[in-house]
Amino acid sequence: MKSRTFRLPLIALIVTVLAPGCSIQSMTGDVMTGYARDHMIPYLLEEGDIKAVCGAGVAFGGFLNSFGRVMDPPNRAAVVTSMSAATCAAQASWTEELRSLRAIRAGNSAEAKDARIAQQRAHAVAARRLYNAYLRTVAHYGEPSETCPQLDDEFDELVWLLGLMSLVQGVQHDRAAKGAVGVPLDAPTKAARGIACLNNQRWWHVPEAVQGAIWASVPGSGPKDADPWKKMEEAAQAGDKTGVRLARTVQIQAANGLGKSDILKKSIAAFGKSISSVPPAERWKTLDNYGVLEVQAISDRIWTEAEGHRTPYQSLGELPGGPAPEEEESDDDLLDGLG
Questions:
Q1: What DSSP character marks residue 49?
Q2: Of 91, 119, 149, 226, which residue is the least packed, with the fewest Cβ within 10 Å?
Q3: What letter would DSSP give residue 153?
Q4: Is the Cβ–Cβ distance between 79 and 37 less than 8 Å?
């Protein structure tokens, strides 16, 4: 009797492990993807730490995505991890750009060239990861078209938004990498079409900002009488009040890329005022900080070209030529009198 008692559960376990679709690996994958959606991603979005998000995207992304070998690919979670991992490469590209600008000021051509090479390599990595995020979006929801995809809940809408923003960002990084990744040239119009499926107010007025930026960048892509810069400014002003300033970030990136220096300066100043008066939205601190990081990269470039250094500490929104930022106390001053 005792042998039968042990044999039946053992047989059941073997059948469970060997049955198609019921392997230990696939069950583990189901648990991990569910955990990523319900806990890891919401936690990282609330945390606000871009470096932690970047590290999680690099470290956890490969592990999570590998479950696609034994189960349905976890495409939605992959969108988030791929976009997160891209921030690491984007930050590296900005650092190398500043190194190149400083080398040019110093007259060190070899250092400047080396920095530009490193910058292009980092842009290529960022473009590849961002384009992968978009391809994962397409794998789950289909290509953006005149018909909107089925977005069942907030998470679906978030993934759709991030996937389309990844496509737009991927185009920019791929251009900086001389087309190394091959992001399609019609990508912006696809993004404009797909992002119209989202509620503008619910998603911090980002959809209208992205549409405006694409209309400005791709002649003839918008309505005949549309003013894309007015559209972006209206979206940015409304988005600034939400605590997720991505609409303003989109406007600043468009003005920077298209050489609209007056709009760029005004928009960076408005961004600085917003972050000093409106706290980031609690649930979305990381997305707001992502926008801050993108704007800071543009501001750092402007400051480095003019002064040889990055944006002064806690002075985002100020530009060279304005009032000089107050000097901070040095560490030596703080130690005075302790001897």
A1: -
A2: 226
A3: S
A4: no
Residue 17 has pLDDT above 60, yes or no: no
In the chain, alpha helices (H): 2-18, 24-35, 41-47, 50-65, 75-106, 109-141, 154-176, 187-195, 206-217, 228-240, 246-257, 261-277, 285-307, 331-335
CA dihedral (292, 242, 193, 178) in degrees, to 10, reads 0
Distance of CA 89 to the CA centre of its chain: 11
Checking if the pLDDT of 299 tops 60, the result is yes
Q: For residue 242, what is the DSSP state?
A: T
CA distance 242 to 285: 11
Own/partner pairs, 209-214, CB within 8 angstroms, 24+ separation: 209/235, 209/236, 209/239, 209/246, 209/247, 209/248, 209/250, 209/251, 210/164, 210/165, 210/168, 210/250, 212/250, 212/251, 212/254, 213/168, 213/250, 213/251, 213/253, 213/254, 214/168, 214/188, 214/189
The pLDDT of residue 53: 87
C-beta separation of 144 from 194 below 8 A: yes
Mean pLDDT, range 262-277, rounded to an integer:
96
Model confidence, pTM:
0.85
CB 84 within 8 A of CB 44: yes
pLDDT at 308: 97
Q: Which long-range contacts (CB under 8 A, 24 or more apart) does 315-322 make?
A: 315/272, 316/268, 316/271, 316/272, 316/275, 316/292, 317/268, 317/269, 317/270, 317/271, 317/272, 317/273, 317/275, 317/276, 318/269, 318/272, 319/265, 319/268, 319/269
